[in-house]
Amino acid sequence: MTATAKKSDSKWNLDPVQKAMGQLGWWHILVCAVVFPLKFPVAWHQMGIIFLGAAMNYTCSSNSSLDRCSSECTSWNYDTSVFSSTIVSEWNLVCEKANLVNLSQTIFMFGILVGGVLFGSLADKFGRRPPLVIAVIIQLISGVATAYIPWFWGFVVLRFITAVATGGTMVTSFVLVMEIIGPKWRELFSVLYQIPFNLGHLTLAGFAYFLRDWHHLQFGLSIFSLLLVSYYWLVPESPRYLFTSGNTEKAVQLLETAAKRNNLPTENIRSDIEQYAKTKTHGGVAKGNLLDLFRTPNMRAKTLFMCFNWFVCGLAFFGVAQYIGHSGGDIYTNVAIGAALELPGTLICIYMMKAYGRKKTLITSNTLTGLTMLAIAFVPSTVTWLNVGLASIGLVGMSISFPTVYLYAGELFPTVVRNVGIGTASMIARIGSMIAPFVAGMGVISHWLPPMIFGITPLIGAFFVFFLPETQGHPLPETIEDGENFGKRNRQSNGVENGKH
């Protein structure tokens, strides 16, 4: 390690595990290059309903002049000029059954929630790698099977299983990446981790354009996971998990491999880790629980305000993405434009969080989404290009907000309740994403209703952020007492805390 690197690392007060493998090197980059592509199927499966369940024009097959939803009409003819088939035409999800499409997506998002909780627990018990590999295999099998299931409720069940597995890949991969990347680079990599999701959303429109039968599209989106089965051989266990679980020998072996790849010294790794293991067996800070987030007034307020902003991200990000698919015009172009604008939004997020802090970034991005979506309520539904353009800008705002709340929450919650805090906030976000399909579908009731809801909620979220402390440049709170006191002094002396310190 060079003198410059040592000087740089010293200010981060790295533990021996991080010192051994370094903050960032070729080993870290190779692991991330292997893991990051799993975000492609995460995007495809979560956003796929835009095309799998797309509405198709239809008439009553017995009499085209008959009211297509009258009791006399029992079968329908579908316009196949845009899609050769969707689940709507497959199972006649029209008239009183039309909401079953939204229900299937809500159940899917519930599966993401279940998968995050289930595989998060498995990852804590068995390590990051085994649950990740299992989740990828389940995602492959259930995803491919979904393409051939002949019953609607079978489709829903298999999609739910796929969602559980997808939620599992998300939580295990993110934890693995954050556990190997040094603190100097975590801010950057927490955002870079989202970019394959943006690219997945963008390529979804291309897949759907060429695969216009929903069976073929579902198969095409699912078979990619076959490549991810290689994780069994390519993805290492988290050395930090190996150490904390008491498997010091394997941790040392993996750290030595990482150090060699990163051109770092290896001769002191074993002695440093063994000595560190002895110090960790003496005492330690007791872990907190969910109730600790709500016991004290300042911690309770910060938890509620942060969780609401996660709800906003879940509702508005997935809701606006689906709303764009309902906006008329060419669905492939609309989705591609919205997805293409997500990528610069995510990249801008890196600069904004570093230059302006987490607080101002989240206020700005939420306000951007809120104002652009509210503007749609005053635009005639026939002006498709303006509706899609404004909604796409709103999606840019959410593509900034989502990575921001991930990092913001991680720095706001104290160490003793950080996992349970982020886990709770993530569950709240999934509740928002479960509601999103029904809000996006309210356009059949009134044109202005979905954009009004997608506009007001981010603005409320932005207002709540004013009451949160800036976390950039501050040491992470460790105990519940630290969390309660963090930000309190500034509010007492200045009213609402604002800006960086």
UniProtKB/TrEMBL annotation:
It is a multi-pass membrane protein. It holds the Pfam family Sugar_tr. Residues 478-501 are annotated as: Disordered. GO terms for cellular component: membrane. It is found in: Membrane. The chain crosses the membrane at residues 20-38, 100-120, 132-151, 157-178, 190-211, 217-235, 304-325, 331-350, 362-379, 385-408, 420-442, 448-468. Residues 492-501 have a biased composition (Polar residues). One of its GO terms (molecular function) is transmembrane transporter activity. Residues 46-473 form the Major facilitator superfamily (MFS) profile domain. InterPro entries: MFS_dom, MFS_sugar_transport-like, MFS_trans_sf. Keywords: Membrane, Transmembrane, Transmembrane helix. Signal peptide: none annotated. This is Major facilitator superfamily (MFS) profile domain-containing protein. The gene is 5564892.
